[in-house]
Amino acid sequence: MSVSIDIAGLRPERVAVVPSPLAELGMALHALSEPGHHPRLQGWATGVTARLDPHLADRMCEADFLWRTTFSDIFLPYAGLPGSAVLPGATLPEELDLLDKLTDEQFVDAALEFITCSLDHDTRTPGLLADSSLRPRALEAAAYRGPQQVRFTQRLFDDPPGVRAWVRRFLEDCDEAFFGEAWARLTHQLAADARHKTGLLRHKGLAEALAAVSPVVTLDEPAGRIVVDKLLEGRTSLRDGGLLLVPTSFGWPHLSVLHRPGWQPVLHYPVGSPDPAVPPSVEQLTLRLTALSHPVRMRICRFLARSTYTTSELAQAQGMTAPEISRHLAVLKKAGLVTTRRRGRYVLHQLDVAVVARLGSDFLEGVLR
Residue 218 phi/psi, 5° resolution? Predict the structure, then answer.
């Protein structure tokens, strides 16, 4: 599974790496709403929550579907504006002005990401405001998330300008309450990362820059596409020939790809990951979880976690034949869970405890990516 971006005709000068205060505010709101996704931010989230004005906290809950269960594209408004050189603004007010330039149709579709993301991303639909037949479906999907989201969705349909004004005031109040201080602290780190990636683009090319973004982002040059390893399927192509890379500090472990029809593709990638290990691909993660799902292989792992064993020793311990054990070992080795070394005429197998120990965090990162 993956999200791919068709980059046919992409010129090097049309790739930009730019921090975005509005996108970072969206990730900050997500971290406050889902602190379990961001254990290294729990101290910051606890501090902000403790001093948050109760009225602002209530408003945060009122619209949290915009950043909690999905990452709404309203936090990347420049990608939806016409023109080939629309970039993130340097300040939050500048980006809120860009948000105001989206049409009501664009704003509503982007805000209701939980329904529009299930539509065909390769086909431009009239939109939720223009196609009234889609509204019952949107309200039904909102109902699964609770009455508060139903009310907000209905308000979007009834009064888009009013809701847009409400959202802008809310984001401005968040900036004053906690985000302005955080952005002043983070902007230097994000700007430094953007300069580094831009340098790689200029001197080593797109493949090197993408590899520095994340090991799960690769350039398939023969096919003319960028492939992002994620637990979903999606594809998009360049709009006006441009590609935008936006770094985030609050966003780890989320790696988001904006692939809305008619919008510029955006890679919203985390910087400063606390884990230097290369994350496994979705395929590798699936292989490992499948390998461990068999009771015989679980028992083999129990032995190999304690010491090295030969195939014959494992066969004797498990009451099975050597070929049967070999087949199970082959599955474990293909998944990268067991290492093998030779000592004289004996071949010894051992569980890679470090890989198994990372499975929980690897699984969580994989599903959150």
Answer: -130, 155
